[in-house]
Design goal:
The chain is an alpha+beta fold and about 190 residues long. The chain has one domain (about 1-145): Sandwich (Jelly Rolls), CATH 2.60.120.10. The protein has helices at about 1-10, 15-25, 80-85, 110-115, 120-145, 150-160, 170-175, 180-194; strands at about 30, 35-40, 45-55, 55-60, 65-75, 80, 95, 100-105. Helix 6 (about 150-160) crosses helix 8. About 20% of the residues are buried. It comes from Chryseobacterium pyrolae.
Amino acid sequence: MMTTLRNHIAEIASFSDQEFEYISSHFHHKKMKKNQFLLQAGQQKVNKYFVLNGILKSYYIDKNDKEHIIQFAQPDWWITDYNAFFNNKEVTINVDCITDCELLYISNQDLEKLSAEFHKMEHFFRVKSNAGYVASQLRILTMLNLTAMERFNHFISLYPNLIQSIPKYLIASYIGVSREMLSRLSKSVTNHTK
């Protein structure tokens, strides 16, 4: 499992075996079951999670109890409530497991410690954060500017492995359409590929 993390970090920064052993000692392993909450609104203590196996979703529940999916996370992705993590705030975004999951996690204190001790780790975390900001901005622009069909096609391009792996109602929630509309979109895409 630490090999997966090392390979992930090595895409941006390389470390000696000794350095990586020290870095990896700041990460902790966690196994979660399908439908189990990783983060729940109101929670105080928050970590940042790296997905080894499984699929998770982060979402917000509005005052009408409607679920709005913000992100799916699959292997090699990071997930948390970023406001709670970086600003020591109470959790407002739920994160739960769509499948059984295996994760590595790090506290904000340890993330800051590693970033201070290793410029290359600070660079790694900055690159990952920047990628997250870009993805978040693109997600907002997608919801604002694209038609339902374009949002569905964008979802397929972003998460090609998830189309068959997660329930359709979650995809509908993510792209902001009803289940019935998603069914029509799926049929339309299928008909176009035949």
